[in-house]
Fold this protein.
Amino acid sequence: MRLSLLSLSILPFLYAPLAIAEQRPELAQNIQNVMPKVIDWRRDIHQHPELSNREFRTAAKVAAHLEQLGLEVRTGIAHTGVVGILKGAKPGPVVALRADMDALPVTEQTGLPFASKVVSEFNGQQTGVMHACGHDAHVAMLMGAAEVLSQQQAELAGTIMFIFQPAEEGPPAGEEGGAKMMLAEGLFANPTPTAIFGLHVWPGEPGQLLVKTEGIMAAADSFQITVKGKQVHGSSPWRGIDPINVTGQLINAINLIPARQIDVTLAPAVVSFGQVHGGIRWNIIPDDVKLEGTIRTFDSGMREDLIARMAHTSEHIAKASGAEAHFHVHNFAAVTWNDPALTDWAMPSLKWAAAANGVAPIKPITGAEDFSFYQQQIPGVFFFLGISPDNTPLNEVPPNHSPMFDVNEDALITGVRALTGLALDYLAAPPQQAAQEVK
Ligand SMILES: [Zn+2]
Ligand SMILES: [Zn+2]
């Protein structure tokens, strides 16, 4: 009885969109065939990393590849962004796949034969440049997926948009860039995709896919507080207003907000101070103190509430000492929000892609992604691909942004399979269509 009830309860899943990719044995072979190129591309891009908004060589390489595949290619979007449009022979839905292209101001220490020796300028300073976040692998995997999908053009019913995005790590000071700027320049205007998928390489079992529904990565905000006092000799604080003492109280009070005033059962929230600047000499109480920090949240209502409480607390603590506090917030990324229906829909495709490596759940990550801005426009799913070295305990794997960060190239085939499979399955049976079939 228990067994038959169980089989009844899983019945709808049997009717959920089967990974169409599974029914195309030649697809797995085509993906296998493109992998040596994917690895070559990844190594070449790794050796020639470019900082945010400076991805000129990478963009040219991508554009040349997409043109050679016969795609419609658009360049120069949000500075260096490249978009390839693959129109299937038959009409159908539009789906977008996204890879980010930029590297980081990090001096590589991996000792790999194709390690970066590039030095560049970042915000006025000379620095080594490295693909320490694995965006080299993202570009190479999406180039591979574009090649395999273009081979299917005659059978495709619909359109696939390949987005190669600059400046995911954030544009240099004083510049715009990234997903927000691509959208502002009309990325989704023509054609308009109805879903977007993207992935990130991550320390995890090689070839395993990691996903979660709803908030998978945090919204990231920076905040600045200026505490304005009144400068005075350190020997007679009563003649002025001491902004350093106010700052001491303020840091404690703000750190207590997530712990005492936020419903921690709803979603995590993090507030961290990163800079405190004030004063010039041991016996002068300065006129003001400037503080900066970051806020990470997974729920838009909680984010607004937390920001309002931080502003309120700053103002009132300053007031109690006769000082003033000016509070400002700047948003870098929204919550990377995986649409629940689309995430459910994507599971068979992801399972096909990961095969024996499997699909595993992942906890919310307090890092942020500007992929979230695409998900504010259309439903999207962002997931992670495990790329740790074989037989290495995960706590010993250098994390993203480390000068020792490396990608297990054997895992990249899972990423190409995921991107290819999701696009093919979406064109064959997008979620609403699949739901009608269930009825
Ligand atoms: Zn990164
Ligand atoms: Zn990244």
